[in-house]
Amino acid sequence: MIRLIFLSSIWMISLKAGLFVQKNDYRSYEDLSGLWTFVREESNGGDAGIRKRYYEQDLSKHQNASVMPVPCAFNDMSTEAALRDHVGWVWYQKKEFISMRDKGQLLFLRFESAQYYAIVYFNAKEIGQHIGGHLPFSFDVTQHVRFGAENVITVAVNNTLSWSTIPQADFVYKASKKKPITYIEDITIVANHIGSLFWKIKLNEESDANEVDVEIRVLDGNEEIYFAKGVTGSGNVMDVKPWWPRGMGDPNLYTMRVILRSSTDQILDSYDEQFGFRSITFDKDKIYINKKPFYCLGFGMHEDFDVHGRGYNQAVMTKDLNLFEWMGANCYRTSHYPYAQERIRESDRRGIAVILETPAVGLKVFTNFNLKLHQQIVTEMIERDKNHPSVIMWSISNEPHTEKDEAREYFRSLIDLAHKIDATRPVTVVYGPSWWSNDKTADLLDIVCVNRYYGWYDDMGYLDTINQSVIWDYTNWREKFGKPILVTEYGADSIVGLNQFPSVDFSEQYQNDLVKETHKAFDYLRANNVITGEMIWNFADFMTSMTALRAVGNHKGVFTRNRQAKMAAYTLRDRYLKLLKQN
Ligand SMILES: *[C@@H]1O[C@H](CO)[C@@H](O)[C@H](O)[C@H]1NC(C)=O
Ligand SMILES: *[C@@H]1O[C@H](CO)[C@@H](O)[C@H](O)[C@H]1NC(C)=O
Ligand SMILES: *[C@@H]1O[C@H](CO)[C@@H](O)[C@H](O)[C@H]1NC(C)=O
Question: Could you confirm whether the keyword Kinase appears in this record (predicted)?
């Protein structure tokens, strides 16, 4: 076989990522992050690595072998422009000793994310493929493992659709020692602020649900406050403390402990899932959390940092969320792709609301191929993050060309799908190139998000007209569709330390002036119930590809790429701290 790749059939393979890794008496994992052997193919090599069967080779002996940290973006590691700009295949390989002690266990290889198209080989055999970056996938490798020996994991990644690449081969996961066949594959929890609880437990396909008992225990810290049985069910939990976003209350969290018992009363599997009691609702004006109006004060962002490039980094995440709190922010959008689940979990803990977004930026063509892939991504995104109380909304796409007629049925199908999988959260699309006057989709949505750049891409230098333009634009969206509106992007580039007074574009002063002028419009729009939140573009400067619009990346951050505050950060902080108190 020469080509193992059947692009058109990939989404037909069931790639259940299942639950995040966890350690207890029935589950364990090993983190495979670290230095992997790395080989880059020629950019237009015609899939040479697959033809030459790299997966059967010891790649550390390859003439172009190097190492690459996982997780990180390989683009940012090298001294060569060719690697920075590489489009095509790269190969990752790692040797992993798997002990005799692990025999009899189920072993999975789980990837938190691989950008964009990945083929995974275990001991030289292909065990699966995944398309679409940023979301987890896993494969059962039990039958391929050599116990008491080294095993070779090889991952071929093609970043065809994206500039930056994030292969994050992460974990080996092992389950159930005694009866490896039955385990918890997924947990769905819906819990609202007055204590109503619904759950659904999915067991793996090979299991026999009649052979096992499913126990549900809700824990408040160590104290059990609710007990029930059944793979699915509902009930009421008394005296719950709801989960609140920052500024509105405490982000109270609970644990649902799910236990599987065999007919002979042996525990087969157990999993602790964190959740919160809270509800998201909306009317034509506003978003409500636990029936109280929620005004979003936040940021569009990137999961990006110097040296490390795109992808999850725990130090950067901690710094970012600390800065969030310092700023008085309560919300962010995972522009323009789902961020690491670790970040969503930390947002649960800190009470920061999250709008989860798919990696679908600037869609122009609405083919059936794109739709199938987009449906898969929406499904995987919601499945991964459905139990996180911090997630308040699903964003289907950023800046699609919804002025096209074909966009309507395309988006209708995705919006329906998102509602079908999760009936508890609103669905949105973030508009950019289209207008209220020519858009074909916004009436299908629950909430409408709009990006606008008055004083920057539109009317550069005219700070005086920002107030009226912003009011005119958002009021039109509001009047046409009668839905809550969120400002999801506005802003200006500034090069840190570049000072000009009176202000000139790219100076810190200009960014600051533009932000202040735009806030005048927001004050008016907020007072008149036109908008239900505001997010600046961007939290921090980030790297982009080269264009005449960019000077070493995008400088619309109110923080530098190294997370140092610019002038506009202080303006925004004053506003957010003041408004957060009014939420
Ligand atoms: C190794 O890299 C060099 C320089 O980029 C390239 O010319 C050569 O084709 C590469 N070798 C293989 C086997 O990919
Ligand atoms: C891998 O990426 C290259 C470069 O974009 C592309 O030409 C090639 O078709 C891709 N291969 C597959 C199988 O997607
Ligand atoms: C902004 O425009 C609105 C609507 O025209 C107006 O009421 C308001 O006074 C303006 N704000 C400022 C600060 O000029």
Answer: no
